[in-house]
# Entry
Amino acid sequence: MIARMTTNRSTERVMLAHGGGGELTGRLIEEHFLPKLSNPALSTLTDGAIVPINGTPVVFTTDSFVVTPLEFPGGDIGRLAVCGTVNDLAVMGAIPTALSLGIILEEGLPMDLLDRVIASIARSAQEADVPVVTGDTKVIERRGEGGMYINTAGVGGLHPGAHLDLARIVPGDVVLVSGTLADHGLTIMSVRAGIAFDSDLRSDAAPLNELVARLLECGADIKFLRDPTRGGLAGVLADISARANVSIEINEASVPITSTARHAAEMLGLDPLSVANEGKLVCVVAHDDASKALKILHAHRHGKQAAIIGRVTDASPPLVELRTRIGGRRIVQRPYGEELPRIC
Amino acid sequence: MIARMTTNRSTERVMLAHGGGGELTGRLIEEHFLPKLSNPALSTLTDGAIVPINGTPVVFTTDSFVVTPLEFPGGDIGRLAVCGTVNDLAVMGAIPTALSLGIILEEGLPMDLLDRVIASIARSAQEADVPVVTGDTKVIERRGEGGMYINTAGVGGLHPGAHLDLARIVPGDVVLVSGTLADHGLTIMSVRAGIAFDSDLRSDAAPLNELVARLLECGADIKFLRDPTRGGLAGVLADISARANVSIEINEASVPITSTARHAAEMLGLDPLSVANEGKLVCVVAHDDASKALKILHAHRHGKQAAIIGRVTDASPPLVELRTRIGGRRIVQRPYGEELPRIC
# Structure
């Protein structure tokens, strides 16, 4: 018999694991936030909300970034902050229109580092073609070397070609990813662990709004899109399975992961399926349209290594199953806690 | 001769004073942010931006909150975060529609304190009738007792009665405030200094969207609205003067300040005109409509102590001048640096 640990509410405290994007993050939100703040828009728990303003549906989302180190191979906190919110809008079926930028600076932050991050924000916003239109800056007392936190919120209009709805997912649908997985999270963890791979391991942070628009405009029946950030591919697939009440079968051999990333994950003891990405899409598409969607992904600079990785099934109970290279099967679960603290 | 201190860019660091909402904050934004991020919407430097989405103008704003302590007489960080963004939207002439909520929690934060803050966010959002529709939560490592930072962004549609434009301000216009000044900042500073006033000194944090709507609908020619947060009344008036190229004359005896606040400001060595408010409006109205606007303010629970405090003049050069109680005159300037760190 397994006894469930009881917690004393009056002494309970926030733990790092509450921020990992896994099971504990879900509980924090469901037990502490939703009961008080609940309203129809918030309770859908997607990456954003759709708000009608004078009759026009406006997609609205927010994300905070606390990554350390602030700069890393392939990006920095500023690029993450732009791409993260642009991508959250895009996977909601929005055409991202504008970003807000809320920066909290720690006293002592070198001004030239701030300047590099701001320049990166500007470059990334230009690359995504989504301007930063409003901002706010606060400064907090020095505690360490001088860090920073960034919040970006974003707004956009609905793409007329978007009919994204978990409820439309049915057995037979095909699951694609837009490229290699785990590069972002592994890059951050490698830098922190002081491991230098003499290699191409770098964050994949990239704005995906153009890629998403091409997918939505290609005529394929795209049913669901998500950027697998905290919690990785495993988190997204577990979410789809639980909320659409379907099973998903993934072929390990089809999941694109570079050999460097595979090696890094082994050294760090991490499951690459649970590691964060910042420039990748998970896409569920109708069976007959899978190759059309894959072609669109392959034609775009951010989708060259896209792959069909699995399919939706009617196996019961609803689970995510990985068929391993050696023919075995294992259940893919939403990560529990904080495998990767402050990864984004 | 005054030599201007030169700064070595490579060793320059962020200081607490950069976050005070004064001269140094302005320089940080103008020298480090705007040159790279500049676009027409951002460069107006108002409290938000107006973004067209499918032909509908959407007002969009963001604000981060880092106040310590997290709870104080009259409010807490959650109430500030809701009211601050609702008010920023309202003074832009928007009808606030929805808020986002980005929370950064420090490991070790007591869960019951988090629960109180979330409950306060929910109550304040309900009071303002503006729901929180999307959110994000991150956790950072423990450094102190366990704190939290909150970012709220907000969206809204334009109020059809709003014709707010600094360029419409002309000599003869009248300046009003919606109530007593400096209560919020002095409350925070008193708590931090360990000074207990056996009194009614408490933060004025309140959502002003209903009050603003009444003003915009009353038929008075309202030319400009602003909530005097960081930098206080002095900061707002200095901004108006500089940007509208007009002078403003304020009568000290007309500025509503409670005797408790006056006493607290003296003890703390602060100028109440430069202290932050979180539930007050500064309003510039056409001369002939001043009494109509005042009546509307007086009729609302958040405007009972509203007052006409001065007028716009054509004195040259453009300055803000205070006529003191004893008949003297002094120039009112935008505060320089961080009089009140982490006040909001």
About this structure: The radius of gyration of chain A is 20 Å.
